């Protein structure tokens, strides 16, 4: 049976590589792996979701996450990871991977403090929202939802007690950053400080990124995440600010094409961990400023309440049930100020499990 699973995993990976968003490693570190060189995991989340806007709009079961992980340490100091989405089309990308391949990298440790990671990897944006596994995000901010999370390149990390500094160079070929005639040349640079102070009371994920648009123009992004931990209580304040090109015509009901915009998002996430029961409350604010017209286009504010329940221990300790209610309103401004506010809400119930196959 293990051989069959391994063959399926390798075939899935091979198909993705021929054809061709960052999360915490905490769960992976907690796993007790029998074989350090090859570990196979399945990451899945299944929800029933009902959406409301001027009445009930939809309700159905959805596979929010269905991913295959391959991870391990080849020899001491040489590690790898591959994460392939099995519920996303394997559209070929210029980089040589498929759009369904989130990660495919090798990491090399040097002189205890240095690590060099090569391959398709998480872009080093800051904030705690961006660091979580996407299966753990129920109400994303606008910036988190749109930023291209995984690109191919090189990351150099320097670690010393409680702090890690990252410098990364990756491709910058997506339409939100690169001009169409410069996409095959554009690169991006990112700097990330991941810090822990006062015995973990205060933690940081602060970053700056510069994404090449054309030969002489870069689009800047500042992403700041600050975390406060007091006993069983955690508060996370995240902030995004940056410029890019986006087509937001579907939001305002107009045929716009790519527009040069300045986007901002902020989120406050309050969490309480009582072991099996883990409630949280998230407050969200987004603002889109249209640079050609020098006006705000719209803003989105929202709130989300979550209850997660982890009923098991041992091998089933990462299996959880969740119930989520979220509400948001879109407030139109500037040229679109005559448009009525758009209110929407959703109710989600589901199960999520990251489990080790081998």
List its traits.
358 residues, mainly beta, 16-stranded antiparallel β-barrel, 16 strands, disordered N terminus
What report would you give on this structure?
This protein is mostly beta strands. 9% of the residues lie in helices and 57% in strands. It has a 16-stranded antiparallel β-barrel with strand order 1-2-3-4-5-6-7-8-9-10-11-12-13-14-15-16.
Please render the helix and strand layout as text.
Layout: H1 2-19, H2 26-30, E1 39-52, E2 56-75, E3 78-85, E4 101-110, E5 114-122, H3 142-146, E6 150-160, E7 163-171, E8 187-197, E9 202-214, E10 217-230, E11 233-246, H4 249-252, E12 259-272, E13 277-290, E14 295-309, E15 320-332, E16 342-356
Antiparallel strand pairs: 1-2, 1-16, 2-3, 3-4, 4-5, 5-6, 6-7, 7-8, 8-9, 9-10, 10-11, 11-12, 12-13, 13-14, 14-15, 15-16
- The chain-level structural class is mainly beta
Label the overall shape. globular
Report Rg. 21 Å
- H/E topology pattern: HHEEEEEHEEEEEEHEEEEE
Helix content: under 10%
Work out the strand percent: over 45%
Poorly predicted tracts of residues: 1-24
Distance from first to last alpha carbon? 10 Å
Side-by-side strand order of the widest sheet: 1-2-3-4-5-6-7-8-9-10-11-12-13-14-15-16
Largest sheet: 16 strands, antiparallel, barrel
The total count of helices amounts to: 4
Question: What is the count of β-strands?
Answer: 16
Overall average residue pLDDT = 88
């Amino acid at each position: 049976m293990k051989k069959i699973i391994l063959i399926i995993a390798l075939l899935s990976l091979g198909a993705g590589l021929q054809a061709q968003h960052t999360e915490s490693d905490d769960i992976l570190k907690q796993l007790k792996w029998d074989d350090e060189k090859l570990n196979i995991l399945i990451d899945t989340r299944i929800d029933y979701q009902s959406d409301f806007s001027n009445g009930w709009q939809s309700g159905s079961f959805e596979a929010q996450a269905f991913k295959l992980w391959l991870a391990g340490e080849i020899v001491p100091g040489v590690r790898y990871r591959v994460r392939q989405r099995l519920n996303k089309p394997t559209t070929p990308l210029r980089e040589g991977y498929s759009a369904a391949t989130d990660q495919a990298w090798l990491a090399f440790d040097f002189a205890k403090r240095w690590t060099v990671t090569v391959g398709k990897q998480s872009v080093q944006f800051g904030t705690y929202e961006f660091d979580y596994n996407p299966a753990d995000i129920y109400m994303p901010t606008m910036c988190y939802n749109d930023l291209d999370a995984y690109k191919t390149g090189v990351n150099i990390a320097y670690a010393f007690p409680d702090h890690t500094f990252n410098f990364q160079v990756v491709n910058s070929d997506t339409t939100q950053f690169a001009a169409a005639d410069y996409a095959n040349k554009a690169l991006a640079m990112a700097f990330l400080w991941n810090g822990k102070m006062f015995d973990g009371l205060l933690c940081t994920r602060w970053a700056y990124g510069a994404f090449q648009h054309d030969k002489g123009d870069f689009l800047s992004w500042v992403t700041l995440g600050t975390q406060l931990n007091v006993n069983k209580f955690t508060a996370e304040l995240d902030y995004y600010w940056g410029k890019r090109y986006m087509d937001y015509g579907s939001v305002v009901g107009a045929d716009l094409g790519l527009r040069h915009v300045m986007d901002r998002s902020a989120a406050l996430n309050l969490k309480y961990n009582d072991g099996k029961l883990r409630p949280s409350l998230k407050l969200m604010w987004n603002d889109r400023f249209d640079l050609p017209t020098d006006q705000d286009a719209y803003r989105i504010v929202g709130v989300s309440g979550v209850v997660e329940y982890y009923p098991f221990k041992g091998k089933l300790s990462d299996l959880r049930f969740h119930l989520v209610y979220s509400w948001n309103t879109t407030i139109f401004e500037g040229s679109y100020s005559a448009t009525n506010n758009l209110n929407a809400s959703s109710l989600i119930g589901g199960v999520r499990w990251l489990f080790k196959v081998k």
